[in-house]
Amino acid sequence: MENSDVTDALDEAGRSFERSPENVEEGLDVEEAELVQLRRACRLLAAASRLLDDGYYTVVIESSFVAIERTIQFRLVHDGAMSASEVIRSHRRLYQRGAEIGLYGDAFGERLAELWNQNRTKTYYRLGIATEAQAESMRELATQIHADLVGASRVKHECLC
Ligand SMILES: [Zn+2]
Q1: What is the pLDDT of residue 20?
Q2: Is residue 96 part of a domain?
Q3: Residue 7 belongs to a domain
Q4: Residue 146 Cα to ligand 1 middle (Å)
Q5: Cα–ligand 1 centroid distance for 41 (angstroms)
Q6: Residue 120 resides in a domain
Q7: pTM for this one?
Q8: What is the pLDDT of residue 65?
Q9: Structural domain count, the chain
Q10: Distance (Å) from CA 44 to ligand 1 centroid
């Protein structure tokens, strides 16, 4: 990269992650790894609602999927089925893992994976452009899954929603 402003910005961004944390985002400063996942999901849902009002449908869909996945990860860690440091790289695999510990049925997990694939193909490669109806229904799906999986946990009082 020739432009030194860009290089400087990259340097600064790198340093910002190395410094000891201050002005931490409110609501996320929890100790337990499972609660970090939970609270991040809560925040993503809140962000999706705001962005929906602004008409940013593609980002709403993306945030909704991430909120669903963070919520599933929260339960995997909460239920002792996953270590906090584990990273599940495949979306399909994450949805399967949720089914394996009985958070929902195999068919439901498969449908989530299919939905993710459909969205990936249509939204991101511009074969289709995100619509308001898609954004609204994804936000609703994420909200329902979040409420259901968090409600069945022992720490539902930790939910920010
Ligand atoms: Zn929540």
Answers
A1: 85
A2: yes
A3: no
A4: 7
A5: 6
A6: yes
A7: 0.89
A8: 96
A9: 1
A10: 9
Please tell me the distance between residue 91's alpha carbon and the centre of ligand 1 in angstroms: 21
Cα–ligand 1 centroid distance for 42 (angstroms): 4
Report CA(39)–ligand 1 centroid distance (Å): 6
Q: State in Å: Cα 48 to ligand 1 middle.
A: 12
3-state helix/strand/coil string of the chain: CCCHHHHHHHHHHHHHHHCCCCCCCCCCCCCCHHHHHHHHHHHHHHHHHHHHHHCCHHHHHHHHHHHHHHHHHHHHHHCCCCCCCCCCCCHHHHHHHHHHCCCCCHHHHHHHHHHHHHHHHHHHCCCCCCCHHHHHHHHHHHHHHHHHHHHCCCCHHHCCC
Domain residue limits at 147: 32-158
77 C-alpha to center of ligand 1: Å? 16
Q: Considering the domain boundaries, does residue 49 fall inside one?
A: yes
CA of 6 to the centre of ligand 1 (A): 37
Averages of pLDDT over runs of 10 residues in the chain (161 residues) are 89 92 82 91 96 94 95 96 91 96 97 90 67 94 98 95 95
Domain of 119, CATH number, reads: 1.20.120.330
